[in-house]
Every structure is written in structure tokens, then in C-alpha cells.
From TrEMBL:
Belongs to the membrane fusion protein (MFP) (TC 8.A.1) family. One of its GO terms (cellular component) is membrane. GO terms for biological process: copper ion export; plasma membrane copper ion transport. Residues 83-107 are annotated as: Disordered. This is Cu(I)/Ag(I) efflux system membrane fusion protein. Residues 397-457 form the CzcB-like C-terminal circularly permuted SH3-like domain. Residues 97-107 have a biased composition (Basic and acidic residues). Signal peptide: none annotated. Residues 229-275 form the CusB-like three alpha-helical bundle domain. SUPFAM superfamilies: HlyD-like secretion proteins. One of its GO terms (molecular function) is transition metal ion binding.
Length: 476
């Protein structure tokens, strides 16, 4: 309130009270500043809220007492803490002539213009109020510098929760999760079939699903070709022949081997020196009987499959990995497989094969992980979930994921330059994992980047850019 307004208000009060003759004394007051000081002191003394007398974070807008009867402490406006930059009061009366706006200063900084407090694209070269009575916010030189940085006041930084963290070298551990299915190891499957026309005389008590061990009897067969080869071999080993005939004997034994006669049956012929009428066929490996086609008395043609046995001690996990994650996977990486039938149990193995094809319907690539299965818990065609550790183990420059603002085609961060200045900088990112993002270009090691409230800073920078354009247009 100016001096002329204060004197006029005081004179009006005295005239109403009927003591107009003392108006001359009013004009002889020591100074108008004392009246303003008294008014400010009265405003400052008026409490704006009440706080707990012990300093606890308990507040009230009206006088209040504690549980033990003590009064809350009154907090005047002057004692309240504010982080806002004080604004320069500049008032003009209607009686004073309008002059060119003078540059205002705060400390060593100069006020360039005033912007709308609600963020509207409206600026003014002089102080003013908006339609709701709020003062326009001053914009100082340097706040809208041409280097692209954004400047915020300490109060704005504290209220918005802006927090920075330096970029540092870290080891990123990225895990790719994908579903899969258990399959048999193709190298551990055996098929028992006849290589000559044969007849099955007897089948052992072995059925589909039975577990057999190597050398366990499966069936007895009669084969004319096997009997003829056995007789020839027996004739050669019982007669006293020359060295050339011994070579012929080795050939007859090889003929038995070519007919797939088990080694135990050949050893029995050599020991008994008799031609057997039937030959006992045994299991070639440990495993589970997947298929049994042998029936007593049946005639078997060459190539007919009688038994199929698979070793379950090692299984394959065929994992379908999304096409976007294929570039992070390589041979030798460790994978953890969890079967849905055994919650809480894990099976570990290495990536052995990456199949060179993409499923065009699902856009996935298939990889193979070998899993030890000593207790035969993993079964053929069982569904599993896999986690593949794609970490390289080498530290790379990283920043928190919250620091990167991704627009789809560009990625940027705000670098904290100190003193409330934040510089937007475009970066090139790499792998992600463990809450961090690899930065391959744009930020140096140790540079602090904003990790929280960066979108508010981005909005502030866009607003200041728009206001700067309006201000420059108004000045022109």
C-alpha cells in the first residue's frame, strides 16, 4: 500500500469518528514506513496454524490442547518455513504516470519477465496478478539459458522430490524367462529289431513303462540265419585248422555280430560248444521301455521293431524363446528349469544348442538345455518354465531404469549440473536388468543423473521453452 493510500485511509477513519481537526497531526507523523511496519508486524503476529508444543508433527488450524492440557504453540507467518523465492513487490497506482518498465534485480540476477503462475502461455514485462489474484512468477536471467538446461529453485526441487544418482560401472544380470517342454535325449534311445526272419518263442515279463537294466533278458527267438551262422562258427572253433582257417573262423563270428546276436549269446556258444535252438535277446542299455511289440509265437520280418528303450538319466528341455530375446542368449549360459509338477524344485543345465530357425506362427526360437535327471523325476512331454541367465559378468556403465525417458525412437536422461540446473542429454542404451540400464553413449562415469521426478523436470523444460517463445515474440 503506498503512502498516499495510507494517509487517505487514516483520514477517512478520523472523519468518521468526528475528530477531523486532528487531521493535521496525522500529516505530521514521523514517517509512513512506521505505519507499514506496524501493519506488517500485526500480520506477522497473527498465527497461521498451531503446532504440538513438543515439536511433534501434529498440527491444527484452530487453537487446540494436548491430552495433558497444554496449549498448542501458535506459529505466525514469519516463523513458517518456505522454500519459495521471494517475489519483488512492485505496485503502481492509478494516479502515478505509466513509465517504461525498468529492469528489476534480485541480488546479481535481473528479472527478464513474469510468467503466469498456472502455467498458461501468458507473460508480462511488469509484475501483475491473474484473474484469481495470484502474482505472476518472475523469470530471472539464466533461468531460461540457451544451453538447453533447466533451472529449478531449491523449494521446487524439494517439493517435487528430485533425486540424483551417479552413473557407475555395474554387472547387469538379465534373466530371460520362457516356457518349454521336456524331451528325450535322442542319443539315449535304443530300438531292438531283427535283422533276419525270426520267430519269437518267449517274451520276458517286461511291459511298456518298465525299467530295465543293460543285459536283462527280454525274449527268446529262433532264427534260421542265426542258427546257420552259429553252426559255422562252432565248426571252426572245434576243428584243428591252419592259420587261414582261423581267419575263416573270425569271419563266421563276425557274421553272428552282423545279425545283432548279443555278445552274451555268442559267449554261451563258445563255452557250451553246442548250436542253440533259440537265442536269448537282452536289453542293450538301462532305461524305460517306451514300446513293446513282441508277442510270443509271432513271426518277425527283418527290420520289425520289437522293443524301444530310452535312458531317462539325462533329459532335454526345449525352450521357446521370444525372438526379441534371442540376441542375448548364447551357448554355455546357465538355465534354471522349474517343472510345474514339482513346485519349489529346480533343475540346472547349460544351453547346448540354439536351433537355427524361427517359428513363423509364434515368432519364437527354440534352444536346448541338457538336464541331469538322476531320480527320473522329469518325464517326456512335461511342461516347464525356464530362466536363462544372460549376464556376461563384465561391468558396464549403467544408470537406474527410472532415469531413462524413452520416447520410442529416442532415449534421454537429465544430468544434474548443480545449483538447480539440469541438462537434458540423449543417450544410447543397451542391456537391461536388475533395475539398471546399460548406457553406451551420452553419459560419463560418475556423472549424476536424475532418477526421480524427471518427468516433472521434462514438463518444466517444455513449459519454459514455450514461455520463452511467447516472451521473445512479445518483445519483438
Amino acid at each position: 500500500m503506498t503512502r498516499r493510500l495510507l494517509i487517505g485511509a487514516a483520514a477517512a477513519i478520523l472523519a468518521t469518528a468526528g475528530i477531523m481537526p486532528f487531521a493535521g497531526l496525522l500529516r505530521q507523523q514521523p514517517s509512513d514506513s512506521s505505519i507499514v511496519s506496524a501493519a506488517n508486524a500485526a500480520d506477522t503476529a497473527a498465527p497461521i496454524y498451531y503446532q504440538d508444543p513438543d515439536g511433534k508433527p501434529l498440527y491444527s488450524l484452530t487453537p487446540k490442547k494436548t491430552k495433558d492440557g497444554r496449549d498448542y504453540r501458535a506459529i505466525p507467518a514469519g516463523a513458517d518455513i518456505s522454500f519459495d523465492e521471494p517475489e519483488q513487490p512492485a505496485e503502481m497506482t492509478a494516479a502515478e504516470p505509466k513509465t517504461e518498465p525498468k529492469a528489476e534485480h534480485k541480488g546479481d540476477r535481473k528479472i527478464k519477465y513474469y510468467r503466469n503462475p498456472m502455467g498458461l502461455p501468458d507473460t508480462s514485462p511488469v509484475p501483475k496478478k491473474d484473474s484469481m489474484g495470484m502474482d505472476y512468477i518472475p523469470v530471472y536471467e539464466g533461468d531460461d539459458s540457451d544451453d538447453g538446461s533447466v533451472r529449478l529453485s531449491p523449494g521446487r526441487i524439494q517439493r517435487t522430490g528430485v533425486r540424483s544418482e551417479p552413473a557407475a560401472l555395474r554387472t547387469i544380470r538379465t534373466k530371460v524367462r520362457a516356457p518349454g517342454v521336456i524331451q528325450l535325449d535322442e542319443r539315449r534311445v535304443s530300438v531292438i529289431s531283427m535283422r533276419s526272419e525270426s520267430f519269437i518263442l518267449k517274451v520276458a515279463n517286461v511291459t511298456t513303462g518298465s525299467h530295465v537294466v543293460k543285459g536283462q533278458p527280454l525274449m527268446e527267438i529262433y532264427s534260421p540265419a542265426v542258427a546257420t551262422a552259429a553252426a559255422e562258427y562252432l565248426a571252426t572253433i572245434t576243428s584243428k585248422t591252419t592259420g587261414g582257417d582261423q581267419a575263416y573262423g573270425r569271419g563266421s563270428r563276425q557274421r553272428l555280430i552282423n545279425l545283432d546276436v548279443p555278445e552274451a549269446a555268442i559267449a554261451a556258444i563258445e563255452k557250451s560248444r553246442n548250436v542253440p535252438t533259440s537265442v536269448e535277446w537282452t536289453a542293450p542299455r538301462d532305461g524305460i521301455v517306451l514300446e513293446r511289440s513282441a508277442i510270443e509265437g509271432m513271426r518277425v520280418q527283418p527290420g520289425g521293431v520289437l522293443f524301444r528303450i530310452a535312458d531317462h538319466s539325462v533329459m532335454w528341455a526345449l525352450i521357446d524363446v521370444a525372438e526379441r530375446d534371442l540376441g542375448m542368449i548364447s551357448k554355455g549360459q546357465w538355465a534354471t528349469v522349474r517343472a510345474r509338477s514339482f513346485p519349489g524344485r529346480e533343475f540346472s543345465g547349460k544351453v547346448e544348442v540354439i536351433y537355427p530357425e524361427i517359428n513363423k506362427e509364434t515368432r519364437t526360437a527354440r534352444i536346448r538345455v541338457e538336464l541331469p535327471n538322476p531320480d527320473l523325476a522329469l518325464l517326456h512331454d512335461m511342461y516347464v518354465d525356464a530362466e536363462i541367465d544372460t549376464g556376461t559378468g563384465e561391468p558396464v556403465l549403467t544408470v537406474p531404469e527410472s532415469a531413462v525417458m524413452d520416447t520410442g525412437s529416442r532415449q534421454a536422461v537429465f544430468v544434474d549440473k548443480g545449483q538447480g540446473r539440469f541438462e537434458p542429454r540423449e543417450v544410447k542404451t543397451g542391456h537391461r536388468g536388475s533395475g539398471y540400464v546399460e548406457v553406451r553413449q551420452g553419459v560419463a562415469d560418475g556423472e549424476p543423473v536424475v532418477v526421480s521426478a524427471n518427468f516433472l523436470i521434462d514438463a518444466e523444460s517444455n513449459l519454459k521453452a514455450a514461455l520463452k517463445g511467447f516472451a521473445e515474440g512479445a518483445q519483438q
